[in-house]
Design brief:
Blueprint: E1 2-6, E2 23-24, E3 27-28, H1 29-37, E4 43-47, H2 52-56, E5 61-63, H3 73-83, E6 89-93, H4 101-109, E7 116-120, E8 125-132, H5 136-145, H6 151-157, E9 161-164, H7 178-186
């Protein structure tokens, strides 16, 4: 099992700052995610398109997207499977610093019968918090070849099982802006 932190975005809503490197409680957001995944993942990978040196302080397994025609989180997933085509991946966005080890334990406690599991917070599916079998990779390639562009559309093709996090939806608190980070600091 490999953990994959998706940190390749432009941070446009955070004033262009690299969200995975923003600090909460004195630690980069991506470090919080790596710690949460460490309970079950043998390797932690970070998909990042800038600041590789800084991300390498979190894990030595950092990479840039290999196909710049693919946009968004799917580019990071595609690249990870390009390098590790036979791997299971536990996925998280870099901007959910309240994730704890409970996330990785619960996601990995029963492996999916199908190709994917997606976290469910009691109100909605958290598509960037999922567990994926390697058999999902060919489906991703076909989805991209047919013009698919978003994680939700691709995951719905996989008919994912839901993992219930309705008792702890705060784990998926998403930080998109510097103001949201300040508010989290004050909470």
């Amino acid at each position: 099992m490999k953990g994959l932190i998706l940190a390749g975005g432009e941070g446009s809503r955070a004033g262009g700052r690299d969200k995975g490197l923003l600090k909460w409680r004195g630690i980069p957001l991506a470090s919080h995610i790596a710690e949460a995944m460490g309970a079950t993942c043998q390797d932690i990978l970070i998909s990042c398109n800038r600041h590789l040196d800084e991300y390498s302080a979190i894990t030595p397994h950092c990479f840039q997207d290999i196909d710049t025609s693919i946009k968004g989180p799917l580019a990071g997933l595609f690249t990870a499977w390009h390098y590790f085509p036979d791997s299971w991946f536990l996925i998280s966005a870099c901007d959910t610093p309240m994730l704890t080890m409970e996330y990785s334990r619960r996601m990995c406690s029963s492996l999916p019968k199908g190709n994917a599991q997606v976290a469910w917070d009691g109100e909605r599916r958290q598509y960037l918090h999922c567990l994926l079998r390697p058999e999902s990779y060919p489906v991703l390639k076909e989805y991209l070849e047919n013009g698919g562009k978003n994680v939700r559309g691709w995951l719905e093709l996989l008919e994912p099982e839901l993992v219930d996090f309705s008792d702890c939806p705060q784990l998926f608190t998403n930080i998109n802006t510097l103001q949201q980070l300040d508010e989290l600091d004050q909470a």
